[in-house]
Amino acid sequence: GAAGIICHLSGVNSVILTGAICLSSLAFYLYAINNSDNLSLFFSALAFSLSVGIKTSSFFIIVPLSFIFLFINYFYSKSFMLKRMVLFFAFIFVNFLLFSSYNYICNFLDYNNFFGSTASMEFHRAFDGFKVKLFSFIRLTLPIVDFSGCFDKFSLFIIDNLRVLMMKLEILFCIPSDINPQSDYDFYYINNSVNENFVGYGIVGIFVIVPSLVISVISFFRQKKIKLRPSLLLLFSCSLFVSIFFIAYTMTFFTPNIRHLTTFLIFSSPVLALTYIKGYKNPLKYLMTFPLIYSMLFVSSFISQRSFFNLAQYLIKGYSLKQEQR
Fold it and tell me: How far apart are the first and last CA of the chain?
């Protein structure tokens, strides 16, 4: 698994749950359209509404998710089925009011804004100017190929070059020096640690995600006739970058934004099936598998906030996992 997913699996953040529910909403919708099943359509709307209620980061997935909904609808019916779409959005509206509207209503009652206080909105708002937003987009894509503690010498070489690249881009885009006051580190910090706040996709990005994205594009343009599977996989690939673009366009870059990349990866995960290699005789299978197994074991054992070996030392000394009640 990707380093960010492993880190957040053992934490309390809801980024994985948000991406999984959005993906399940799409799965229910695909089944509903393919089988003309209104019950599955209802559960698709329910899953989508719950994702919006769990975390507002699901709003960054709305555009690619909606486009995939429309494509599935059009592919099976060869026309946009207006009645079914109206029914679907009616289900979303009802489910949102019943299960997901509480926080937004409270925000409106307290701040006259559904999304939060004016100070909070201003704090997170992206700086004006397309160059600044493009710079943030580039910075947010770097965690796709971070190293998260693996291959130290090689990763340090790559990190130094990426740091130089970001400095040159800052000059090229005329980025103001005070663009990033709320971040725990500046734009030039490129992650090489297993830290939940900074970690991206790890070496899974290099060995699996990037090849999957490339293969999806090639597979789509090689088809002579539009087919569902290659088209959907291309849309999943595009959804990763579209979601990153929306968060870069609406929010200024700072440390907590990185965790949203895990949500986007979970939603785009079907495209990773393109790197599956059948059989056991292909050496490429082992070339990809062993580094990924090593990464999974390393990341899960050395998360800086919850290191297994640090915990083991306390257990050896006789400490209990239960906190004493006073």
Answer: 40
User: Tens digits of per-residue pLDDT, 246-299?
Assistant: 888 888 777 777 888 888 888 988 888 877 777 777 777 777 777 778 778 878
Output the pTM of the full model.
Answer: 0.83
Which structure tokens are listed for 5? 């997913």
The tokens of 144 are what? Answer: 């796709």
Collapsing DSSP states into helix, strand and coil, what is residue 98? helix
Calpha distance 101→161 (Å, rounded): 46
Q: What is the pLDDT of residues 97-116, one digit of tens each?
A: 998 888 888 888 888 888 87
The residue with tokens 């030392």 is 313
| C-alpha dist (Å) from residue 287 to 206, 207, 244 | 12, 9, 30
Sequence-separated (6 or more) residues with CB below 8 Å from residue 175 = 131, 132, 135, 169, 187
**What's the rounded Cα separation, in Å, for the pair 41 and 92?**
10
Q: What are the structure tokens assigned to 182, written together?
A: 């709320």
